[in-house]
Design a protein that fits this description.
By secondary structure, the chain is an all-alpha fold. Helices cover 61% and strands 0% of the residues. The protein starts with a helix and ends with a helix.
C-alpha cells in the first residue's frame, strides 16, 4: 500500500493497456491467493523453525562460510526460480496456473502477489528448499 501511495506514478493508469477495474482485480486476486499460498507454505516453514532444516543462529561456521552461503543462496534461488518459471510457461500448465500472472500488462504495486496460489507457492519453494 505504501508503494501505491508514495512511489507509484498514477499516470500509468491512463495507459491504454490498463484493464478495466485492474487495480480492484489485482487486489481481489491477491487477497484470494495469499491465504492458499500461506496454507501451502506453513508446513515447510514449521519444519524450518522446529529444527528440521540447516538454519543456525549466529555464525557457527565462520564468516567465510556465511559469505559463501549468501552467494550460493542467490545463485540457487535464481536458477530454480528461472526453471520453475520456464515450467509454468509449458502449454499444459500455463493456461491453468500461470496465465493470471501475465494478465497485468501495466502492473501496479497491487500486482506483486496477484497470481494463482500454486504459482506463488512454486516460485517461493527454492527459498525454503535451500534451508534444507
Amino acid at each position: 500500500g505504501l508503494n501505491w501511495i508514495f512511489f507509484f506514478d498514477k499516470a500509468y493508469l491512463s495507459d491504454p493497456k490498463i484493464l478495466p477495474n485492474q487495480v480492484r482485480r489485482e487486489i481481489t486476486t491477491t487477497l484470494s491467493s495469499i491465504p492458499f499460498m500461506t496454507l501451502l507454505t506453513a508446513p515447510v516453514f514449521l519444519m524450518e523453525v522446529r529444527g528440521y532444516s540447516k538454519l543456525t543462529d549466529g555464525m557457527p561456521n565462520g564468516l567465510g562460510f556465511e559469505i559463501f552461503t549468501i552467494f550460493s543462496f542467490l545463485m540457487f534461488t535464481d536458477m530454480c526460480i528461472y526453471w520453475i518459471h520456464r515450467f509454468l510457461h509449458h502449454p499444459v500448465v500455463y493456461p491453468h496456473i500461470h496465465k493470471t500472472h501475465h494478465l497485468w500488462k501495466v502492473p501496479t504495486p497491487w500486482a506483486s502477489h496477484a497470481f494463482h496460489p500454486l504459482d506463488g507457492f512454486l516460485q517461493s519453494t527454492p527459498y525454503h528448499i535451500y534451508a534444507f
